[in-house]
Amino acid sequence: MDCPEDGAQLKSTDFRGLSLDECPTCMGLWFDRDELRRAKDSADKDLRWLDFDPFMGEAQEWGEGKRKRICPKCSVQMEVVPYEKSGVLIDRCKECHGVWLSHGEFEKIVSHLEKEVNSHSSGDYGWEAVREFFQIFTGPEGPKEEMRDLFSVLHLLRTRWAVEHRRLLDIINGMYEGTLK
Ligand SMILES: [Zn+2]
Ligand SMILES: [Zn+2]
């Protein structure tokens, strides 16, 4: 596969436990379907429940001077879409659901998400836990994935806001024990 930015041949590299394709020249990274989410989750366990699907948002209009990149896998033109409010514009391929990130963009995304996690109050996490709990049965990701999301929210509640919301924590802990059985 060739780099969408400079045409150099991508090389396989170990990135946070995943085998990704990296450009030796510009250090850009290619994520196959779902690998971006998995890399984000392994960067920080607390980010698990903050899921943003880069294929849900509207693509940006092509304007004068805007970059147009070609998917290294399927050779079709990729779309540009902002990754939430991180300030990062990612390139996505609608054919193979792969994502191209320029050098340093992954780190920008992670630090944006970490800020997001820290700006929420514990009350938000309580509701998030309840929502996640019901998603186990109804969510699109399937029970195992949703279970992991729930555990990461519970982990945040238990470690960071244990004192603040005693009563809520008791309820959550009851749920937590229940789901382990
Ligand atoms: Zn490159
Ligand atoms: Zn593709």
What are the salient characteristics of this protein?
181 residues; alpha+beta; 6-stranded antiparallel β-sheet; 5 helices; elongated; binds zinc ion
Write up this protein.
The protein has 181 residues and is of the alpha+beta class. It is 41% helix and 13% strand. It contains 5 helices and 6 strands; from the N terminus they run E-E-E-H-E-E-E-H-H-H-H. It has helices at residues 35-43, 105-119, 122-138, 143-160, 166-180, and strands at 11-15, 18-22, 29-31, 79-82, 89-92, 99-101. The protein has a 6-stranded antiparallel β-sheet with strand order 1-2-3-6-5-4, with helices on one face. Helix 3 (122-138) packs antiparallel against helix 4 (143-160) and helix 4 packs antiparallel against helix 5. The longest helix has 18 residues, at 143-160. The radius of gyration is 19 Å and the shape is elongated. The chain starts with 10 loop residues before the first strand and ends with a helix. 27% of the residues are buried. It binds zinc ion (2 copies). One zinc ion is lined by residues 3, 5-6, 8, 23, 25-26, 28.
